[in-house]
Amino acid sequence: MPEETDRWIPLESNPEVFNDWAYAAGLNEYQAHFEDVFGLDDALLAMVTPGAKAVCLCFPCTETIETKAREEDARIKETGQQPIDPAVFWMKQTIPNACGTMALIHALSDSDVTLIPESPLAKFIDECKGKTPLERSKLLATTPLFASIHSSAAMAGQTDASTADMQTTLHFTAFVRAPAVSALAHEQTAKNVEWRLIELDGRREGPIDRGKCSDLLKDAASYVDRFYVSHANSMQLSMVALCPGPIPSF
Questions:
Q1: In the chain, at which residue ranges do the beta strands (DSSP E only) sit?
Q2: What is the dihedral of CA 104, 90, 132, 144, to 10 degrees?
Q3: pLDDT value at position 163?
Q4: d(C-alpha 75, C-alpha 121), whole Å
Q5: Which residues contact 140 (CB under 8 A, 6 or more apart)?
Q6: Which of 19, 17, 41 is nearest to 234 (CA)?
Q7: Residue 221 to residues 5, 10, 48, 134: CA-CA distances in angstroms?
Q8: Gap between the Cα atoms of 89 and 74, Å rounded
Q9: Sign of the four-CA dihedral 117, 200, 16, 96
Q10: Which tens digit of pLDDT belongs to each residue from 15-44?
Q11: Catalytic residue IDs
Q12: What percent of the chain has pLDDT over 70?
């Protein structure tokens, strides 16, 4: 049985790897899929299947990014932030190198995809109801099936898993959208609801509001460009988007 101190094989930022994980965990392959986001400008974003439901970013943990993250967590703890929809699912990462699985869980559980009933992820989310973020992490660490799904997906990547850097400095975070708490209070309709861009990173202290969201893909790309690109080597940044429909056949 896996423990929280076990170090998992890092996942590649690769849509094939993400799709393998997602379909094994319970995503209906005809309903949604992950695909590459090749760049942050409008022309490259337009190549992504319309209607992105979540975005996963892989970035290097540079000293600047780490420092700014600690400062932001401290500032939010002291002064707060824009209230976040309490229905947003977030859990703390305690397993080394499990950030890919964390990003996948956050992306799938906080989007409008329907999971196959009784699938591993559907049952996991159900079992997490009423649990704290750390209790959810403990449940993940003591559920062997997720370690197996993660390992199988990692082995399917282009990198030889037997030589994978187990001390990787790369990390995954996820971006989703959620209704503004004010919108929930006023029971706005789906057409005029105010949406917020939410970042979900298991190493942080909770979900983080990144501002208004009118187009999830463009707004996530804009934030990545403003923050991550300016503090990291852009060659080490990569993004995949959770998009509607089956994997396109080209």
A1: 32-37, 54-60, 170-179, 195-200, 208-212, 238-244
A2: 0
A3: 45
A4: 33
A5: 91, 95, 98, 101, 105, 124, 146
A6: 41
A7: 33, 23, 12, 29
A8: 21
A9: negative
A10: 999 999 999 999 999 999 999 999 999 999
A11: 99, 171
A12: 88
Q: What's phi and psi for 216, nearest 5 deg?
A: -55, -50
Name the band, by pLDDT with cuts 50, 70 and 90, for residue 2: very low
Here the tokens at position 28 are: 């209906």
Could you give the CA distance from residue 174 to residue 100 in angstroms, rounded to a whole number?
9
Question: Contact at 8 Å (CB) between 183 and 44?
Answer: no
Q: Report the predicted TM-score, pTM, of the whole model to 2 decimal places.
A: 0.90
C-alpha closest to that of 8 among 173, 155, 204, 158? 155
* Chain-centroid distance, C-alpha 179: 17
Encoded amino acid at 72, one letter: E
Dmax over CA atoms of the chain, in Å, equals: 54
Q: What contacts 24+ positions apart, CB below 8 Å, involve 37-43?
A: 37/217, 37/221, 37/239, 37/240, 37/241, 40/221, 40/222, 40/224, 40/225, 40/229, 42/218
Which two structure tokens, joined as six digits, stand for 154?
Answer: 């990692």
